[in-house]
Amino acid sequence: MSQPSYLDFTSDEWAALRANTPLTLTESDVEKMRGINVNLDVDMVEHSFLPLSRLLNLHFQGSHQLATVTDTFLGTPPQPRPFVLGVAGSVAVGKSTISRVLQELLSRWPHHPRVELVTTDGFLFPNAVLEERGLMERKGFPESYDRRALLEFVARAKAGAEQLEVPIYSHFAYDVLDGETRVISRPDILILEGLNVLQAGGIGAFVSDYFNFSIFVDADPEAVRRWYIERFVTLRDTAFTQPDAYFHRYADLSDDEAVAVASGIWARINEVNLFENILPTRERASLILRKAPDHSIERVRLRR
Questions:
Q1: Who contacts 107 (Cβ-Cβ below 8 Å, separation ≥6)?
Q2: Which pLDDT score, from 0 to 100, does residue 70 have?
Q3: Is 76 helix (H, G, I), strand (E, B) or coil?
Q4: What is the rounded average pLDDT of the residues 230-239?
Q5: Which of 75, 117, 186, 256 is the most buried (most CB within 10 A)?
Q6: What count of other Cβ atoms lies within 10 Å of the Cβ of residue 165?
Q7: pLDDT single digits (tens) 2-34
Q8: Distance of alpha carbon 212 from its chain centroid, rounded?
Q9: What distance in Å separates the CA atoms of residue 301 and residue 89, rounded to the nearest whole number?
């Protein structure tokens, strides 16, 4: 199978495609969206994410017009259906921060003020199920998700369901919260963020079949490994110190011990998942954001 064709842009070439798109976020807004140990400032938003916001707005309008054409052809009243945006990439690559930035930027366009962000974490099987199936060491791998429930959720969203329930995942408890959900109602744009949202293969429908546009957040694996370790050390000094935290047992590790534990988890679980399941989906994305070691966007590849 031939590889898809992409247009390549340097960071400056990409920034020029912002055109006249106004910056609607303040430094305070950006500060609230910054992830753990993820460098993000107003200049980065202006340089890298305003052009992407403009591109997605154009795709939204085109998708809406196409849907209207179809409804007109069928002789049916126009049905509101969300524009579904998928965001994929490794653990610790910063896709959650990028998704939050896009949510804020896109919600400030007049065409689509209602933008919801859903992560696939809520569709992980509960820890009790993972333990029963011997999958705790493969949490985040494709088989650790309730893929049927996730696919049904996206299909119902795409069909314009009035209300959708999203399971809630707690990183503090490191588990899906039993019986707890949040409800979203007919967003203009639905951002679905997760490790394996671009995965395909086999028989039947896939989550990515429902995407209007998809983004893969890419970086050198060695940089991602370093970001993961830095985040682990930061969490050791913050969230892990709380007695009820799932990872409280790591709170008293020395710096060297924390680095060693994080390196082991990365090599044993996250790096394997990255190379076996996540990186192979990269070329399925509509757009690839390549990050530099400082988290800035150094290259953008846009699928023709």
A1: 113, 114, 115
A2: 82
A3: coil
A4: 95
A5: 117
A6: 13
A7: 677 999 999 999 999 998 888 888 889 998 888
A8: 15
A9: 15
Token pair listed for 269? 């679980």
d(CA 146, CA 124) in angstroms, rounded, equals: 6
Tokens, residue 148: 């049927």
Q: Which residues contact 58 (CB under 8 A, 6 or more apart)?
A: none
Q: Report all structural domains of the chain as residue ranges with CATH numbers, in order of start.
A: 6-303 (3.40.50.300)
Residues 6+ apart with CB under 8 A from 96: 35, 119, 193
> Is this model's pTM higher than 0.85 or not?
yes
One-letter amino acid identity for 235? L
Give dist(CA 181, CA 16) in Å, integer: 41
Question: pLDDT (tens digit, 9 = 90+) per residue, 274-299?
Answer: 999 999 999 999 999 999 999 999 99
Q: How far apart are CA 206 and CA 110, in angstroms?
A: 31
pLDDT digits (tens, 9 = 90+) for 44-71: 999 999 999 999 999 999 988 888 888 8
- Beta bridge partners, 181, equal 167
For residue 41, the Cα-to-chain-centroid distance in whole angstroms is 19
Cα-to-chain-centroid distance, residue 299 = 18
* Residue that has been written with the tokens 């976020």 in this structure: 25
CB 101 within 8 A of CB 40: yes
**Complete DSSP assignment for 1-39:** -PPPPEEEEEHHHHHHTTTTPPP---HHHHHHH--TT--
Task: Name every residue whose Cβ is closer than 8 Å to that of residue 63 and which is 6 or more positions away in sequence.
Answer: 83, 212
d(CA 262, CA 270): 10
